[in-house]
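Weekend entry, working from home. Most of the wet-lab plans are on hold until the incubator is repaired, so I used the time to fold the two sequences that have been sitting in the queue since the last round of cloning. Logging both here for the record. First:
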Amino acid sequence: MSTARPSMMSLSGRDPGLYAASGHARPFRPCADCTCSPGLLSRQGRRSSAFLKQLENTRRRKSGRDPYRVSSLSGSGSESVYSSDMLCQSTKEINTTERLLQLRLQMIKHELCCYIVPSEDEHQSEYVSLADQRRSFISGFTGSAGIACITRNLLNFNEKDPDGKSILSTDGRYFNQAAQELDFNWTLLKQGEGPLTWQQWCINEAKEMSEGLGGKVAKIGVDPKLISLEQVKAFKKKIQDSMSSNVQIELVPVEQNLIDVIWSTFEPVPERSSNNLMLLNSAFHGEDFKEKRSRVLKYIHEKHKGPAALVVVALDEISWFLNMRGSDIEYNPVFYAYLLIDDEGTTLYTDNPFQSDVKAYLQENNVDVKPYESIWEHLQQRSSNRNAKFLVPDNSSWQLIRQIGSEQCQPVHSPLDLFKSVKNVTEIRNARVAQVKDGVCLTQYFAWLEDQLVSNEALIDEYHAADKLTQIRKTQRDFMGNSFETISSTGANAAVIHYAPPEDGSSMIDPSKIYLCDSGSQFKEGTTDITRTVHMTTPTQEEIENYTLVLKGNLAVERLVFPEGTSGLHIDSIARQYLWSRGLDYKHGTGHGIGSFLNVHEGPIGIGQRPSLAQFPLQAGNIISNEPGYYKDGAYGLRLENDLLVKHAQTASGNGKFLKFENLTLVPYCKKLINVKMLTKEEKLQINEYHSRVWQSIAPLLQPQSLSFKWLKNETSSL
């Protein structure tokens, strides 16, 4: 855990000065029944305007000065509204206490010693709607990945005030963020930092309680819709391995979600969106529904000898298969639905409204539409026929298997996941178009930002800079929105891997420090995900050298030629080798699959150290990110991300089939941060050729006398 924090309001919305002014802690000021946690408010994409207005008025009355005046580029000046003595100083200490108490009272009703709160929704989505952010509600941690585990001490017989422990387990991308957002009730369990997993932690706690009660069964509960069958199997095996004569532990399904029971006590419960469905034109998808259905049926017949139905649960797979898009989850063009495919037809379970063109399209393709929740009753009815067989994806929820019956289910990796990861000719052509569009936008953005900060000495904070980038992107035709929340981070904030600037109190971008921008677009042509790290004045020698190490790793992956059958597990070390030579590393994967106007993180491929990646070798037609980085806590962060197309390679020997990468991204690297002396001739040639391609692709789309044109010309000039 880093002791150096990012600048003011970097993540949790709290001013470090509240606790460290003048080198000592300020007096504790209690705040009864406080629910104004900035972390919890930011989870809903908002902050308490009434709270801010009250705070502003108080400041004005006390000092007669403008509370929004910023006295330094870091945004942490003493005149910031967030440094007021009137800010509730006990929010971090108490804002989840009452929530945890109410949860434990519900756990008593179900006789649970432990309750698990996953991040995912019932479709195992990585990014979920506000209504599915239960883990964020109970913990205050707003990152997209992690799992909360809460115990109720069975040895404490006070049922009015039960106590217990609570942990948040997450990966290296979120260590800094979680450390800042979690209050004193929570312990951060860092995945990969030791042998203890969240599953083993739950088992250890349950084991201790079972032993203390003379072998009484200790129940660990979870909503069966929110955990996959594969996770349940692995968890039960760990439990079995931990059993002894005086210990009984049981993993039990709790169909009534306990977070949903208590949520409305503390704040209005968000409603799930159910927006209009959009039909994707053939110019954007390249393969019609009937062709896709034919491919899937062929797979079903090969995988299962005899009639079977494929249940589709992943939202992006449903959108891809139907050539339709939605907007139910922010940044992800998907909609809430289930899908059933068999020889008889296709059944879509959704409550989303649709216009006449979609209605006609569904009727034409014999797609039967039923209410979203009716999937459960329908599966139960069909499974009552003992001859009915179902192919169920390996990421299906535990509840889905329980509803059908395990004896009638054959687990498979969804063929739709595999099919959509290999882009067709139309999708590849469109991906190149999308990258040109985003290359223009990012060129305009970085040129504008540097001019404002350096030439005009303007004060621009991270949030409004990110908003400016969105406004620039909106000028492009068929721009449908960002593909994720823009990571716009200055200085120490860039060391927080998945940093998101808050709207209120965001740090001012300091041109004398590193600035990292990780952003992406959803165009109808495709999805982009691009990171550039820049310096607008004079970087330190350390920053230059470490940036160059990251760049060398990025270039090495891009140059790689490798045999078919190679997975991203084997490629990951190529990106890390130069950092490793200096004893440096980064706590995230090197690459992830990217959808075609779909999710920015797309399975099943990736470049990283997860053993599961070995099951999915890269194929020609995959689009994958290449994003090594380096992060110095409390100082700066570096990341360079390009989107690569996997394609066939022609080798001199002609023996065997080989693959290579094509860099689709068209944004220059930061020349000020490159130590040319650390580059080989091959690397210099590679950068110069890339910059020449960027110039030829983007310059004709810019006004010759514009700032953007001049900035691009300078940044793409030869090393």
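Second, folded right after the first finished:
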Amino acid sequence: MRGKRGGQAGAAPTLPDEATIKALADPKVFERGRAVLRSGAVSALVRRGEELTAAVAGSEDAPYRVAIRLKDGTVADHRCTCPYEWGGACKHVVATLLAAAVPGAVAERPTLRALLGDLPREALADLLVRRAAADPDLAGWIEVEMATVPGRGAVDPAPVAAQARTLLAHQARRGYWDDYEAHGPADALKELVGKAVPFLEAGDGRNALAILVSVAEPFVEQWLGEMAETDEEMDLLFDDLGRMMAEAVLTSDLSEEERDDLFETVEGWHAELAEYGPEGFSIVTAALAAGWDAPWLRAVLAGEAGAVPPRAERESGLVAVRLRVLAAAGRTDAYLALARAAGDEAACAEMLVRLGRIDEAVAHAVERIADPDAALALARRLHAAGHPDPALDVAQAALRRAAAPRGGPALSLARWLRDEAHARKRRDLALTAARAAFAQGLTLADYESARTVAGKTGWDPVRDDLLALLAGADRARDRIAILLEEGLVGDAMAAAEAGRDGRGDEAVLLRLAEAALDRDPAWVVDFAEARAKPLLTEGPDTYERAAAWLARAKRGYLAQGRQTAWSARIGDLAAENKRRHKLRPLLEALR
């Protein structure tokens, strides 16, 4: 897993809270992760700066290895060696994050860069030689590193191509369904492709192309032979290669003959891939064919009114590549002319901010930018540049226009605007944004944030408004938690009965069972037993959860004065589950 490079050991990054961890995984996977934690399967928890690693015992002889990159209390990236691939974090990642929240559970260690910085050169060389004996690919990576150092003349593409072929050959020797893992070494290939980035940033398209072509050629061959039918993730790498090669073409000093040769090569790849779908190289042939000499482009850069990029350039992403090249070259007037001609209002405003033309950027954004993501990115840039109030104006204008589906990009925009407006003591704006955030997310966290913004004296009308929004929503994951927060136990019971919000957070439902005891203990018995029933047969990982629900059922029986009935009920359950040896003591404890 790639982590943040450099830096000495400093203050440990904030760990994600439970709500953040829940958002990473399917609710069922989260509960399984909690069960993995309770089983004691997590060990070797180590944090090195932003990197958190652990070993988690599973169904294999060797433990699964978990690696998590943290940033600002969130999870920037996570990886596990288990075969889970059904979306979101696996239970081992969840268990690792939950375990890390236990005080004293994590061993704080120096970052790898800090360790290597103190290692003498000879000792480092000896270490690499010893590790190369166990890792045959290490020598190849070192060759790649040496061949792609910026500022040392022409790149030697041979080590890059050799390493790409090695990576792809490893995958060719194993079947797609082995361990249910993805077929392609996507991350390692991306690392090779990334060697072109410093050259692109320096405007050295020739050396960037040498690297990119060296990866692309074996990749196309192997993909056509082994991966075309099986690996969607590797398919996406064609888009990255295409955009980067197009940028390299537009910053290179290739002769006409070199351009023709490269065009023929890339066109051949594109033709071979056409049957299978990847379109990534079409942008390269377009860049090679047009260069900077297309009539429409000359007209745009000359400031001629009415000149616009062809639709194919916009849809292929070539206009965006041209903008990157112009920005890197410092051709800001040309950049603004092309951005305006292409209708890329966000790019235009971003450049105006970079140039310090703040009033112009804000006026442009307020009038033209409606996309929540683009508005949020610009607002954050303005804020970071020391212009907080203009940033709020940009966000407010975009939020007014937003007509996104619930939970879409407008949610992030509304939350940012709420928090920043509250910090700037712009109460009315903060309340407007808080309402929008709650309407988009319908979460307990957004409800509580709205209460903070409203304050004690202004909360009542805001609460009534938010509860009306909640009542009108078809689905709301935190509906019951919010109703309990307001003491609306009857409404929470009705919501649980309706079941329209899915299975719900189990901890919240357990709280509901507690809160409903005084109101309707018979309802608690029925509700708790219905929840416990499937958990009794799912397997050992769910037995403690089943016992927790049966404990609520017991309290419901006792609240009705039905001790004898409970004794008979728990006795029947113990008899029915007498062969479940891990469950039996939990049931006996409830007699």
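Plan for Monday: verify the second prediction. The first strand starts at residue 42 and ends at 48.
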